[in-house]
Design goal:
The protein has 270 residues and is mainly α. The chain has 13 helices and no strands. Helices cover 78% and strands 0% of the residues.
Amino acid sequence: MSRQQRHDARVPIALAVLGWLAVAFFVVPILALVIRVPWSSLSDVITDDATTEALTLSVFTSVITTVLAIVLGVPLAWLLARSNIPGRQFIRALCTLSMVLPPVVAGVALLASLGRRGVVGEILDDWFGVRLPFTMPAVVIAQLFVAMPFLVLTVESGFARSAGTVEEAARTLGASPWYVFTRVTLPATQPAIVAGAVLTWARALGEFGATITFAGNFPGTTRTLPITTYLALESDIDDALLISMVMVVISVVILVALRGRWVGAIGGVR
């Protein structure tokens, strides 16, 4: 729909009222947060050792999570978009299930599989002496489990859209499948990969339930910024408001960057 068509379209009053009510539902809590934040204490909270430590840990683990998601998620997205493997729909459902699972349930599932007495974790412990729960790698695993589906679905959509005559032409000229994938398919899917990576990073940065269940709450090791925010609610509401505001700013920057450059490129949003 063109801009002129949108301008000329008449919106029923009932729809307009309900639409603006929905806008208020989303905007009012954020405005309330902005109003309640004790801005004079912002520098003290940001420079506080506990906050800095939690922010550093969150950024570090979420970046690692994003890299792993790209390494593992892009091939998975290609399989789901281009291959004819049996049970593809079922595999897609399993690989994206963690998007809709309650985060605490995701953490329990990780404990059941990778805990000291888990299906895989017991083997790792008995044979190799590797214990993953309540460690920094556990933070990355929890973030990856709940965040990678965002990249998989986004990149799968990109692969589906990029299939076309250019790839067929490259194959006709004798290009190998790997050459076609790396020199033709990946560049054509770059906007989707970047969008998926940013969404994955944002989801990993804000992950709470699976992390605290599988990785615990240990300062400097597994206490991320969302966990620090939750703990601040019990001791100092002002600190919780300020830390929450930092997360809001990060989220807004991500959304603006995605909306302006990448989401429209892969989803047709205008």
